[in-house]
Amino acid sequence: MNGLAGQTSFYPPEPAPDPLLCWLWLAHVLGPASPHAGRVLDAFGGAQEAWEARDTAEFRQAAGPAAAKRAGQLVPEQFRALARRCAALRVCILPFDDPDYPLAFSRIPDMPLVLYCTGDPVWLNEPGAVGIVGSRKPTDYGLQAAADIGEALARSGALIVSGLADGLDSAGHRAAVKNGCPTIGILGVPIDRTYPAANVALRHTIEQNGCILSEYAPGESTPGPVGFLQRNRLIAALSSALLVVEAREKSGTMSTVSHAERYGKPVFAVPGSIYSPDSAGTNRLLHEGRARAACSGADLVQALGLQASAAPEAEIRQPDPMTDTERRVLACVGPQPLGVEELCVRSGLPTASLLSTLMKLQLTGRVTCLPGKRYVLR
After folding, report:
1. How many domains does the chain have?
2. In which domain, by residue range, is 343 found?
3. Are residues 180 and 220 both part of a single domain?
4. Rounded CA gap, 11 and 283, in Å?
5. Shortest CA distance to 18 belongs to which of 90, 130, 120, 95?
6. DSSP letter at 173?
7. Which residues make Cβ contacts (< 8 Å) with residue 152, sequence separation at least 6?
8. Which of 53, 334, 362, 367 would you call most buried, defined as having the most Cβ atoms within 10 angstroms of its Cβ?
9. Phi and psi based region of residue 322 (left: phi greater than 0; alpha: psi -120 to 50; beta: remaining)
10. Which among 327, 340, 335, 167 has a CA at the least distance from the CA of 241?
11. 267-269 and 292-293: which strand pairing?
12. Which stretches within the chain are classed as H helix?
C-alpha cells in the first residue's frame, strides 16, 4: 500500500491581495456612480470581502449581472500599476475606508468607492461646505454676484465647492482663493487632466490651500459629458447647501439641483431679470419654491449659521484635525436628528464619551444640537 495513501495534501491558502488593490478592483468592477455601490458595501462590508465572495450568488445579487461578469475578468493585482502611477504623479488614492474619505459621500447610494485627490484631502471633511454652481457662459451680472457672494461666504468660514469649470464655477473658486480660504474643485475628467486647460493655474493655486477631487483615475479615457453629470452629484453631496447663481432652464446646473434635493440639501438661487434666459432656471426655482432667494452673501451666512467676518486677505485658514473617535461619531450623525441613545448604539461608545465628543464636534461647527438633545450634521 502506498505510504501516502489516505493522507490529505496540504496547500497553504492563497495570500490575500493588498487591500488598496481590492478597492481599486471593486471600483472598476462596479464603475463610476454605480447604484450598486451601497448594496455591495452593505452586503460585504469592504472590498476584500467582496473579492472573496465574487463567485457567490450574493455578490451577483448585490453588484448586478454586468458587474459580476467583470468581477470574474479582473483581479486586484492588475491595478498595482495604477497605484504606482498615482504615487509617481503625487495623486492621493482615497478608498472608502480611508480616514480622509468624505463622510458626506458615505451617505449616498451611488457613492464613489475610490477617489483620486491632489492637494490636501483633510479639507474633505471640514464643515460649512457650500456649493456654488451656474452657467459656463455667465453674464457680467452673474459673475459679479458669484464674486460678491462667494467672497462673503469665504470670509465667514464657508468652504466653497464647485466644478472648476468655465464661468461661475471658476468665479466661486477665485473668490475663495482671493481671500486665502480653502476651496474644493471636483472634476468630471480624470484626475491628471484639467478641463478647461485654461484653469491649470487656478488649479495649482487651489492645491496649495484646498484640494482637487475626481472619481476617474489618471490615464483613463475621458468619460465625456456623462462625467460632468456624474460629477454634479458629488458637488451636491459634499455641500451643506447649494447656491445657483445663474442658469438656464435646461442646463447641467439643474442636475446638480436635483441631486441636492434628493440628498435633502437646502438650495439657494440668485434672482435675475425676467427678460434674461440666463436667469430663467434660477427664477423658475424661486417661483416653484424649490430654492430660497440669495440677494447677498448675508442671506446665506445667516441661514447657514455662519459668522460674518472681515478677515484680512493674507490670513490662511487651516483645517481642524479630527480624532478617530470624532470621525467615528461623525459617521453616525446624518441629516435627520438623532438622540443620544441612538447615537450610543450606532457608535458603540459609552454615553459620557459620546457626549464629550459631540461637544467637540459642536465647537468645531460640524454638528448642531437641536432641542431635546438631538444631533444633526451642520
Report:
1. 3
2. 324-377
3. yes
4. 69
5. 95
6. H
7. 296, 297, 298, 300, 301, 308
8. 367
9. beta
10. 335
11. parallel
12. 19-30, 37-44, 47-52, 57-63, 65-71, 80-89, 140-155, 168-178, 200-208, 225-238, 252-262, 280-287, 297-303, 324-332, 340-347, 351-363
68 and 215 in one domain?
Answer: no
Q: Is residue 337 part of a domain?
A: yes
Prior bond of 121 cis (ω within 30°) = no
Residue 135, all three cell numbers: 452657467
How far apart (Å, rounded) are the C-alpha atoms in residues 186 and 221? 17
Contact 203, 183 (CB under 8 A): no
* 3 in any annotated domain: no
pLDDT at residue 362, as a whole number: 75
Cβ neighbours, 10 Å, residue 164: 26
Per-residue pLDDT of the chain (378 residues; tens, 9 = 90+): 444 444 444 444 566 789 999 999 999 999 999 999 999 999 999 999 999 999 999 999 999 999 999 999 999 999 999 999 999 999 999 999 998 999 899 889 899 999 999 999 999 998 889 999 999 999 999 999 999 999 999 988 899 999 999 899 999 999 999 988 899 999 999 999 999 999 999 999 999 999 999 999 999 998 989 999 999 999 999 999 999 999 998 888 999 999 999 999 999 999 999 999 999 999 999 999 999 999 988 888 887 877 665 444 445 566 667 788 888 888 888 767 888 888 888 888 888 788 878 877 876 777 877 777 788 776
Q: SS3 of 92, please?
A: strand
Do 150 and 231 lie in a common domain? yes
Same domain for 125 and 79? no
If asked whether residues 217 and 69 sit together in one domain, one would say: no
Is the CB of residue 227 less than 8 Å from the CB of residue 188? yes
Nearest to 195 by CA among 156, 221, 163: 163
> What is the pLDDT, as a whole number, of residue 141?
93
C-alpha cell at 94: 482615497
The answer to whether position 116 is within a domain reads no
Q: In the structure grid, which three cell numbers stand for residue 26, read together?
A: 471593486
- The answer to whether residue 352 sits within a structural domain is yes
CA distance 150 to 144: 10
